[in-house]
Amino acid sequence: MSRRVLYALAGTTAVLLVGAILHPGFASWSSLRVMLVVASFTGFVAAGQMLVVLVGGIDLSIPWVLNGAAIVLTTSSLGQTSRAPLAVVLALGVGALVGLGNGFGVAWLGVPAVVMTLGMNGVMQGLTLGLSKGLTCASCGSYAPSPLRGLFSGAVPGQLFLWGGVALLMTVLLTLTTFGRRVYAVGVNPRAAFLSGVGVRGVTVALYTLSGVFAALAGIALVAYGGQPSLGLGDPYLFESIAAVVVGGVSILGGRGHYLGVIAGSVTLVAVTTFLAAQRVPEYGRLMIYGLVILAILFAYGREKAHD
């Protein structure tokens, strides 16, 4: 696990060094600040994706859970400061409820994770479009409350501190608690974990619930940063969350991985995107490179596992 984290950190460093050599100012503080801010949104979503991947699952409902939470935040707060706390709780509650449904379907009903979460993504898309009536414009009052917008602006935006808190939470949860040990046990061998007294179903439900909460948190952060939600806001983050998890050294088969690697993976993806933009590589080229990088890393990790 430590070796994979080192690989991820080395990849981040290499991309930044190459960018700094070819484009002066690429690794300056102002540039790094922007990259870290953008990477933080992927990092929030990837935290939840990592948790379900650790037990051999996947969460495809992330895009519209994120989008739904963002619209719930703005439509329930109407931009008013006094309604902000309740709006944040409601948005996080939406994520938790959807995640709970995903976990119940996967753990108790035996529905494959791909099918369950993809179906839930469609349900959330329909509910979100119905709630918003397809409108997310300023005339509908769909602005984030000013305290949230103020928190996520400034010399050091608040989402970086929030990301640091998420990193601390994930590290403590997975490395220093009994629950974390149970997560890895379920990921390595669910049957052996069950025979050892681990509540496999309970762990699975908890992880999918947390994934929903982290997706909702990303939606809140995006709206606070941009001021306004938009339909399709969460679409890019499904692929990016999976890519960050894979690049970060988390085994797609479960049982291996650390959030520090996912942080490095998130930053690496944003740095690569920034570098390709500086090189004027078109969008389709960026997507192709993304895919090739993920496949290459999976191949390398597969060879590593075979040698182990």
UniProtKB/TrEMBL annotation:
Ranges annotated as spanning the membrane: 6-27, 61-79, 86-111, 160-180, 192-225, 237-254, 259-278, 284-302
CDD domains reported in the protein's UniProt record: TM_PBP1_transp_AraH_like
Topology with respect to the bilayer: Multi-pass membrane protein
UniProt KW keywords: Cell membrane, Membrane, Transmembrane, Transmembrane helix
Annotated compartments: Cell membrane
Domain of life: Bacteria
Pfam family, one: BPD_transp_2
Name of this chain's protein: ABC transporter permease
